[in-house]
Amino acid sequence: MASSGKEKFGGKAAYILALAGSAIGLGNVWRFPYMVGEHGGAAFIIVYVICAFLISLPIFLSEAVIGKTTGLGPYEAMNSLAPKSPWKGLGILAVVSSFIILSFYCVVGGWAVDYLCRSFIGGIGVTTRDGASALFGSVAGSVCEPLVAHAAFLLLTAVIIYLGVQKGIELFSKVSIPLLFVMMVIVTIYSVRLPGAEEGVRYLLKPDFSKIDASAVASALGQSFFSMSLGVGMVLTYTSYSRNANVVEAGAWTAVFDTLFAILAGFAVMPAVFAGGLVPEAGPSLVFEALPYVFGQMAVHTPIFSRIVTILFFMSILLAALSSSISLLETCVNHLMERRNYRRGRATLLFVLLAWALGVLCSLSFGPFGGIRIFGQTIFGFCDLLTSNYLMTLGALAFAIFVGWRMDKLEIQSLTGKFFHFMIKWIVPLAIIAIFVSNLIL
Ligand code: PHE
Atom of ligand 1 at shortest distance to CA of 98? Predict the structure, then answer.
């Protein structure tokens, strides 16, 4: 389909905020802080920033130049740049990866809806560690409650996408991203002032360069791919809505916002975890068990204040998750609109139903379907592992190789500059292959 007549972002700010919205998500809150602590504090942050700007940014640019030059989503873009070639497969890979991530991501989004509702209605009210675990067990592991919350989150995502690029994605990003930062700053201030919080600040900041080994670098890179939403055609799709944009500038801003928010989330989460006398771990328990417990304990002394902080915390988790889930759904919806000439409403409905079905399986894998294992993983775990560890990396590698080796050198250099073209062509593929191999060995 021709790209003329396609919806567009209203301007540069909208495009950048939408990209930042996609990047800022659950990954920033529940994986980044833990990785920082595990892999040498400030030393890891330095490695992460280097990876974000030297490897992830070039990958971002690879996707962006394809979106910019074609004005099309991943499948049609590859189809028009390399007709009748296997490169179309990359377009399919991108849409499929987006769809799978969307499906399990919305399950977690549902938990955020649930906790937020609870913190409004009567507070979360857990004061013991066991109480927090039991609560999470029922929020995630029962049948009805998580399914209702999951459907609610998916519905919110669908409504925003149904409203379209400007009235949906753009408006939501413009409101939610600034709000998200403000709310997280308030939670951070509260968190670092809790008694015993210094230990958590030290955990994040104490630079320990002896912990920077191959596995730390691999973790930093993997995390920065997921966090900047690379390899799934999202950057490509959003850029096709903003073809006049300067892609280097947009990529740099996305990396800056994403990294700042991850560090901010680290200071909101870890000091509180240590103040509560807990041992930090990555994943859902950090956000949905440890923090409710700590805030619940504080509620004994400062009920109103701790209630407000709990609401702000879960509200920011919800907004962060939504601004990411809409970008995943949009990549899928745009595909059907281009490929099959579907109207937005119909394409949204179709993908939402599919994502709902897979999401239900993922959600139930925390409860009654917990025994179903795929390569030793629950359904949710398998979807997460498959996309985060394999499909996204493969997509990122393929986009870089295509742009570096198949597209016109001078044209790419005029968009990205010589330095980034060199990185895309040589360093990114080598780095990804090295990490892939080291991951297999480790
Ligand atoms: N970047 C999001 C996060 O950090 C996840 C995501 C991945 C969103 C891929 C869109 C595409 O949580």
Answer: 11
